[in-house]
Amino acid sequence: MSTAPLALHRHGPASGLPLVLLHGFPLDARMWDDVVAQLPDVPVLTLDAPGFGGSPAPDDVAAAVSREPGPSLETYADAVAATLRGEGVDRAVVAGLSMGGYVALALAERHRGLLAAVGLLDTRADADGDDARANRLRMAEEAGRSGADAVAGMVDVVLGETTRAERPEVVERVRGWAAQGTPAGIAWAQRAMAARPARLSALEDLEVPGLVLRGAEDLTSTQEAAEAMARALGGGSELVVVPRAGHMSAVEDPAAVAQALRRLHASVA
Predict the structure, then answer these.
(1) Could you give phi then psi for residue 117, rounded to 5 degrees?
(2) What is the pLDDT of residues 115-169, one digit of tens each?
(3) Which residues form the signal peptide (predicted)?
């Protein structure tokens, strides 16, 4: 088995408890760049999802962790754990945004010993409803026909109203990243997210510090969903709402997100 199923990028100090950041769909690890720049003294590891950035195609990732081919966030979580083990990391602060949050939840269920603390950003612990699931599957089919064009319209959904109105450079940056997704990666990720189960129960006895964060203008990950995750994590969690940011809070207000992640990391480092 390969020791590195996924592309991993190191930032900051070479030693210490790492902060692992898992990106949102349909971007790659570059979405964390501005956050990482605010944390020069923290050892940070960013990873690319299967079929995104520098990571192999999804079926190759599945083979590397001895799982059957096919879309599965469990495969992604196992690949994260295997990649970290290959780098000598057996405990980390893990934070994920959107799809990355779904993977952090799967890690809490499947590899909880890895988690020294967990951050859940602009994400939710429930399963998709029928309409959302059907929309994901339609987008997966469209990616097979038109590639990254299938996700072009998502930029106006994932960025907050303030960012779209006042920060055209951020809009274009995100649009450029989204255009670089591979058809296989886009389709696999959407099918994997459509199939995910509810995982709120994975947080209820996790017994590690937690961060739940959302952009105030996030129309996808609601305040209700954030509060449910914070309650499940218990008294050791912090709930943060970032003003004037949408679903991609780490890109829209990296300073606020970096501050919250620094507090989370400091709670166990």
Answers:
(1) -165, 160
(2) 999 999 999 999 999 999 999 999 999 998 999 999 999 999 999 999 999 999 9
(3) none
CB atoms within 10 A of CB 10: 12
pTM: 0.96
Q: Which domains does the chain have, with CATH numbers?
A: 8-127+197-266 (3.40.50.1820)
Which stretches of 54-210 are DSSP H helices? 58-64, 73-86, 99-110, 130-146, 155-158, 161-166, 168-178, 183-194, 201-204
Tell which phi-psi region holds residue 207, choosing left (phi > 0), alpha (psi between -120 and 50) or beta.
Answer: left
- Residue pLDDT, tens place only, 12-32: 999 999 999 999 999 999 999
Task: Give whole-number Cα distances, 257 to 80, 146, 208, 247, 254, in Å.
Answer: 22, 34, 19, 12, 5
Q: In sequence order, what are the residues at sequence separation of 6 or more whose Cβ sits closer than 8 angstroms to the Cβ of residue 201? A: 232
Indicate the SS3 state at residue 51: coil
Residue 237 β-bridge partners:
210
What DSSP character marks residue 205?
Answer: T
